[in-house]
Design a protein that fits this description.
The complex is a heterodimer. By secondary structure, chain A is an all-alpha fold. Chain A contains 14 helices and two strands. Chain A is about 75% helix and about 0% strand. The longest helix of chain A has about 35 residues, at about 35-70. Classes of the chains: A mainly alpha, B alpha/beta.
Chain lengths: ~325, ~450
Amino acid sequence: MKETKLADSSDWEMQMTVEDLTPLLRQRKWGQRSLRTRKQNLVAFVFLLPWLGGLLIFTVGPMLASLYYSFTSYDLLSAPQWVGLDNYVRMFTQDDRYLTALKVTFLYVFISVPLKLAFSLLLAVVLSKGLRAVGLYRAVYYVPSLLGGSVAIAILWRQIFGLDGIVNQGLGLLGVNGQDSWISMPNTAMLTLVLLAVWQFGSPMLIFIAGLKQIPSELNDSAQVDGAGRLRRFFQITLPLLTPLIFFNLVLQMIGSFQVFTSALIVTNGGPADATLFYTLYLYQQGFGNYQMGYAAAMAWVLMAIVMIFTALIFLTSRYWVFYQDGRI
Amino acid sequence: MQTTFKRRDFLRAGVGAVMGSSALGLMSCGGAGSGSGGQTVPLRLEFWGTTERDKRTRQVMTLFEQSHPSVQMTSQFTDFNSYWTKLGTEISGGNEPDLLQMDMGYIAEFVQKKLILDLTKYIPKPINLSDFDKVLLKGSEANNIIYGIPLGGNYQASFYRTDLVSQAKVGEPDPNMTWDDFATYAGKISKALGKGFWGCEDGSNNQVIFEVFIRQRGKEVYTDDGQINFSKQDLTDWWTYWSNMRASGACVPASLGVGAPLTTTTTPSDSLLIAGKVAFHFDWSNLIVAWQKFTPHKLSMAVFPQGPAGSMPGQYFKVSQLMSISSKTKYPEEAANFVNFMINDTGAIKALDIERGIPGAAKARDILKPQLTPTQQEELAYIDQVGKYARPKTVLDPPGANQVVTAYQLYASKIAFGQLSISAAVNQFFSDAQKALSQTKLS
């Protein structure tokens, strides 16, 4: 999944800077340091320069630009004009389709993220058992994660759930005659996109497998000796010990889901009747279809605020449901 | 046993992911000025189209370079929707092409922002329009000024499957049939072909056919100053007509009609006409060649249904695309030479064929006649025949027209899916459309 990968890489990058800059910060505090240390720092800094340059030019720069544009009316063809908060006001007071987009996106996030996590956890549990050729299975089940965000799969999805697609033909064999294409009815179109998201369960699954392997077998063994059944052991031992990973996957998947774009663009194009008009798709249509770049920039910042609020909420509640084995909360 | 999930790691992951949020980094700018040195005149051309069009356009560019050795041409092309995105981005970065293909739906905006050249002073020299189709030329003007030369023109047309029509034994469509006649006609096809087959597509969200319907009532869709020109009653009549068509089974149900996604990757092969489920599809005449390639069954063309007695002709000869010159180009003379070359040079005419629609110059039509394929000949014959059902269109679509179309399609589908009544949908459409048009008002 594209968004996840993006998130992962910036995660590493963030980590790198914070860690590598600490010596520099400390140096200022301590005043004089040896020439050698200073030289080393300089070397580190030079090595970091390309990345820092990239960050400034390709991330911070455009972000600041988009913050500025969000207060302007900008149609790409002529210079932006300052309009203050008009774009933000319009979003919540005059734009019904924007509210539709919000509603649709929330629905998608609230359905697809828990489903995807549950499904990937289930498969992780199955695949962490000592099956024969388990490596092969893991590789096979990971493939959808690599392909799922692609245009080709989105097109394939449209065929599968189309009027004469595999799904309707399969149902036909069972005696249920599908009269409608799944993607062209308002009440089922969202479902197909949720399924497409759930199908890309690979990366959370891999993380869960790693977590399952970390769980000490003594705990399970002793519980078994005490007479705890399979389900009881899962809910009393495995699940609590996995909560840090559930937490991690939840945050990443939530952020990724809010930014869902490709599937809606290719499979449904926001239709039918705006039933799948996801936030980023509407943003794209406004910015690049209608040349309302200022409005689109404002929408992007509101989305960022929404994602931050939800991330913060998950962090704040985490102390009540995330358990760390070493006793730290 | 140490697990190392720290609170701070998650914070970083969260912040990092948000920072990487692609939604925010969308802006980009083009750089790279054209390094004009010595005698060479670099000209850049951009257009939308297919690889087929690219191949033909590049042949013309090569021919032009041969006769104008000082000029060096480059070109880029994309699909229609990406084209405007790309062009907008290039213009905002000060990197616009010298020559650009223009569409009638966008020309008002480009003229208003002074992005393309007034071509008056390049006519008749170097751009020679002496034998150019007057209707086509008139239809390409903005405020009575020529800002681009039409590369081709086409009419609205119903494409129909001759095999399904003859199977249904309803006879060839009569060009004089009215909308009500057509409803009966399409209903008969549905009935004759049985379950899973329909007479026609759902036209309730099709703006091409709606415009013809409005024009048959003697109006244009927009006023000269860019406001909606049809009444709520007109739109109510239109959506009621299609609502009845769906109810009677003459056209396809909502899930196959208005619900079918139209995305950047849908092609004629995804259509119900090519799948053989409907007999009639509404489109532009130049697309018949592309559509015919998708099916071995013969497709024919018919004029759209007419209004009741006393109505006006509704169809019009539409410029398929224009060749315009950027107002920022350093070489307007050479660019104008190239525009003339495209429409008047024998080699160029042959290379371009009628891929961009029927060309405007009489000479070009004569040159092309012998080399046309049967489908192309049918297109030409249709264009000769449709003239008497047509009336020139002189009002430009205002900036914001594409948002009006979006609203029209949205409310048409809400009616079809039973989410809104026709009257509620009409009211909401008018409020949305007026909002869209006032946001991008001509200044």
